[in-house]
Amino acid sequence: MTSLWLAGRAPRPAEPAPLDAASRSAGVVVVGAGITGLITAVLLARAGKDVLVLEARTVGAGATGNTTAKISLLQGSKLSRILAKHGAKRTRQYLDGNREGQHWLLGYCASHGLSVQREDAFTFAQSEQGLATARRELAACTEVGLGAEWVDAEWADGAAVPFPFRGGVRLADQAQFDPVPLLDRLVTELEERGGRLAEGVRVRTVSGGRNRLTLGVRTTGGDEYDVHAKQCVLATGIPILDRGGFFARLKPQRSYCLAYRVPELRLRGMFLSTDSPTRSLRYAPTADGDRLIVGGAGHPVGHERHPSSSVQELDAWTKRHFPGATQTHYWSAQDYAPVDELPYVGPILPGNESVFVATGFDKWGMTNGAAAALALAGRILGGRMDWADAFAAWSPHELSGIPQAVRNNLEVGLYLARGWVTPAAHIGGGRPEAGGVVSGPPWRLRGCAVVDGREYRVSPVCPHLGGIVTWNDADEAWECPLHGSRFAPDGTLLEGPATRGLTPES
Fold this sequence. Notes:
The chain has helices spanning 4-7, 35-46, 78-111, 131-144, 179-192, 307-321, 365-380, 402-421, and strands at 25-31, 51-55, 70-71, 116-125, 154-156, 167-177, 196-199, 201-209, 212-219, 224-234, 250-261, 270-273, 279-284, 291-300, 326-338, 344-347, 355-359, 435-439, 446-451, 454-458, 470-472, 477-479, 486-487, 493-495. The protein is an alpha+beta fold.
């Protein structure tokens, strides 16, 4: 399961070179080599900072390498949701941050010869039920002044597409691209400016403070050692530290993408539906012709019994509306929805200028990730962006998210209790023919998965906060329904907030 972007990437070393003892310190350690982490690192290196980037897997292995890669200011129904909670001023600040992030990205791509396609973006209704949401989004766009350089967001009654389009918002002159060449160019610039990158190094703990931090790490080869820094940026999707309780302020969402070869594909533009099931569409140029990318089938992580059925429905929908479509790639990604609709970017705790976080991009990581990097680098270097209040990790505007946070955490409690009780129904269930199952009494739970005929047995207890994992039959992975940690069939950690894998069992 490799994304269209990562599939064409040049092979990387199987075992990244370990950090030698002399290189295990830096002025700033950036954790995570996605778009946010690498832009932050480059901006700091440009200013003369000693920067080290630590990546648990490989560059772009997380959300950035598995995105649909739309660089758009029209973001589904995002602006109308922010406006309803926070008013016009804060919404304009959010838009200004995204606009600056978009401008930086497009300028960087242009100056380094990276391919970008400028296309119109659409937030559209597939049915009559979705029209009200689309019209609310247009009203929000109008109120906060969303527009391209030469035209404002406008209503479109139709579009030249082969799928249902009942009307929607159109914003001209947005952009899309392949994000991997951008990441590779950022790595090159980082190293040219004296910064360093270490892949296969997972940060598990961060201790200390006041410009004296110790990061406990473990490499893919099993080595463990400490890395020292004055400051640290956690650009890991969701913060790996429980300080600040960000895991309780975010809802992890899993969504799926499929790429197709379509005879005479004529689709232009980027499309996102307002009604369910969600449809996200764009094209992608490749060396042997354009590919169609279709996304959707999203669900809260660990809450869907059979996500593969939703992916199959998405595939059937695509082939119905694009005759002759042949699937070439399939992948999925994880995003984090903030309870108050706005990202969290800044100190992990109020007044802490040593550890910083960037999270809550809610599926719009291209512009939000670049904006977060600009805000973080500015803060570390002693500056401040005018729009940064909308991205603050700690702010009075979070009060609007308290009701949603309470609902989310009541749901977490329900899944925690259910996870320890429900497996008792599978006592004696034995080895599944395929897929994964958790069985046994609460005092002896066991997870068993069979993938490609090979059996794996693990403790199903998530090492983050003790949730019981469930099986995702679309990704063939274990997922924790509490806060979104994910694990391979053998228990290997795929993404946090957990910092170690499930315990293997014989």
